[in-house]
Amino acid sequence: MTPKLKVLLAFFLAVSPLTVLAAPEKAQALDLSRHLIGYLSIAAFVTAYIFVVLEEITELKKSKPMMLAAAIIWAAIAVVYNQQGQPELAADAVQKLVEDYGELLLFLIVSITYVNALEERQVFEAVRAWLVRKGLGYRSLFWITGILAFLISSISNNMTTAMLMTAVVMAVGKDNPRFVALSCINTVVAVNAGGAFCPFGDITTLMVWQQHKVTFRGFFALFIPAVVNFLVPAAIMHFAIPKARPAAIKDFTRMKRGANRIMALFLLTIATAVVFSNILHLPAAIGMMAGLTYIQFFGYYLRKTHREEPEVPTELMERAEDEKKVRPGEERFDIFQKLAQLEWDTLLFFYGVVLCVGGLDFLGYLGHASNFLYGELGPTTANILVGIASAFVDNIPVMFAILSMNPDISTGQWLLVTLTAGVGGSLLSVGSAAGVALMGQTRGIYTFMSHLKWMPAIALGYAASIAVHFWLNAELF
Prior knowledge:
The protein is mostly helical.
């Protein structure tokens, strides 16, 4: 059996007897890893995950099977603990998981609401239109979209960022499939790398920060390794990009009223969350909820000062010598519409993952996995293989499993697993939500096989980023 396969199986199967569980509150917990209930829980989780993987085929939202599996696992655990006369142990364990999820949920609700508000104010569309109008060469566009994807994904949803950049690529390069395919690969690598060095860049980095494994500033030690992860494959693919220059396209989009101020409020919200966490030593989610009130008050101002204006005809927009003189019509701003547009399927899937993985931990499986990964293999090998595993398994359950194991490792190792779990999904097109979304957006131009062809270059970037992390951040190990 290969080491990679062992890592995947270690999350689900017990490989050795467990004597002591890591968390203090589980000192009296039962080891049910070889009990019928344990096998039932494994079967429920694996079955649910199969449906998650087949989501594109079955068209069944991934949250549904995962939430059902969570209910089955904890119901099974409760039956055993009630029989043993210890119902409070199971109740306390699942309550702690719900509290952890609730804190992350509040954090994500605010972050995604701001991103949705910026999208509604046409900030991203304005960026896309500006790039399309420039008439850049294919190679210039390849690099600009990649760099923007890297930077934007540090504070925005990876999938949203990837789809924005691909819209630019498709608009100017739809007649050059090779350019589109390579740019999509570049974008997937860029958004995954950009999300790895900032707590706001990805759910996995957010979880690590919320669990106080790394400080807010500590994540920026991964900036250079993340840049290397993006630059190495991009530099190799650069020579395969055509040197031609597509014709410029007239496309005028202006940001709506208040867009710049909402961007400023988003930065202020991030600063508030950092102050609450680092200075006041309160959950960062409280600071984020305070930040939600910023945009709520500003939304109130926008509604009170709103004026109905007619939509500007496209012909007038195109003829305008200065598009800044033309003000497009705008809809009335409503913050609760932005809340309704949250990615509830992803958020509920995350709930299912937290309770499923937490249940497997309570049953004893993650204790065995931790013994094997961080005891027998060692933290460096384990963390590198975790990144490879994230190319096959969604990085959210992988990272939550690592956090549930809570291995005694250095800050440098926590940064390493944050980096590898984030960028490891770039190895395959199906390794991240961004890759899956772009395969659907490009309609057969960017495919699993076109991405696989460049996997050696991406793997080289993966290895180089790890080496640079060890070199630059040696004092953290």
